[in-house]
Design goal:
279 residues, mainly beta, Porin, two-stranded antiparallel sheet, 9% helix
């Protein structure tokens, strides 16, 4: 299991999976390649600038200059930008996959620093400055099922995943809807997502244990909660390989996590814009 965690973590980091994905919606039909030229690999890179805000106290935003798109699709096995999966069923009604992925909450905890404060968590003056640091958290490998469906009405995906690395022992359930528009060389795809996080998952990343608490950081236990996201991505195809791409995303943390003393801002915003090349 530790070996699987290292492999997924390396691939996930290499593909810049910071929810700033510049991957395109389907290529316009007038620029698509013939079936004979289709490869099981999808490899691309976008050069531009992106940023994702960090909701934690004493933290820095996450900057992205190069956004990598790496995917491979076999007959049943596939790897898609951090998701390792196996297709169990694929028919006209939808696709059912078994998938493994790395939990993305940990990415925030790698961009924090320690400061000394003179005011306690209750607002009182401390006799002497004490260090205030964000506790460290580990990556978690999660395993579960996803169901995908699409049609003229748009795209729909629902997934349920449980921690198999014994990092937080919790689970999450996602539901996402997207509706792509195509016009000449443009593709535009707005999305909406709901993500339920169990108490164990939520508390592991956003709670404060007694061993981590201090006069500046009180103990805090987090219950389950529901995050929601709104996003959109757009591409203008200059050729079948080169396109201008832009994406934006807004996420609202659930109330239980947002109330944590570790959280400075309950909102997470992200954007990316640049030129992307598909090899």
């Amino acid at each position: 299991m530790k070996a699987l965690a290292r492999i997924l973590l390396f691939c996930w980091a290499a593909s810049a999976a910071c929810q700033l994905r510049a991957e395109p919606a389907d290529m316009p039909a007038n620029l698509s390649v013939s079936d004979e030229a289709v490869s099981p690999w999808r490899i691309g890179a976008a050069l531009g600038y992106g940023e994702r805000s960090n909701p934690l106290i004493q933290s820095e935003p996450i900057h992205v200059v190069v956004d990598v798109d790496i995917a491979w699709f076999g007959k049943r096995w596939f790897f898609d930008n951090g998701d390792l999966g196996f297709t169990l069923r694929d028919n006209s009604k939808g696709t059912l996959n078994l998938i493994a992925r790395v939990n993305s909450d940990r990415v925030f905890f790698g961009r924090t620093n320690t400061q000394f404060v003179s005011v306690g968590s209750d607002g009182s003056q401390l006799p002497e400055p004490v260090p205030l640091r964000v506790p460290d958290r580990d990556y978690a490998v999660e395993l579960g099922f996803e169901w995908l469906a699409d049609g003229r009405w748009g795209r729909f995906a629902v997934a349920g995943l449980h921690d198999v690395s014994r990092t937080h022992d919790g689970f999450s359930v996602d539901a996402e809807f997207a509706y792509p528009w195509y016009r000449a060389r443009w593709t535009v795809e707005p999305t909406i997502m709901l993500r339920y996080k169990s108490a164990a998952l939520n508390d592991y990343y956003w709670g404060v244990r007694a061993t981590e608490a201090s006069s500046a950081l009180p103990v805090y236990v987090v219950s389950s909660g529901l995050n929601w996201q709104l996003g959109a991505r757009a591409s203008y195809y200059l050729s079948s390989h080169l396109r201008f791409t832009a994406s934006i995303n807004y996420e609202r943390l659930n109330d239980a996590a947002a109330g944590s003393p570790l959280v400075r801002d309950p909102e997470v915003t992200a954007f990316f814009a640049g030129l992307a090349y598909q090899f």
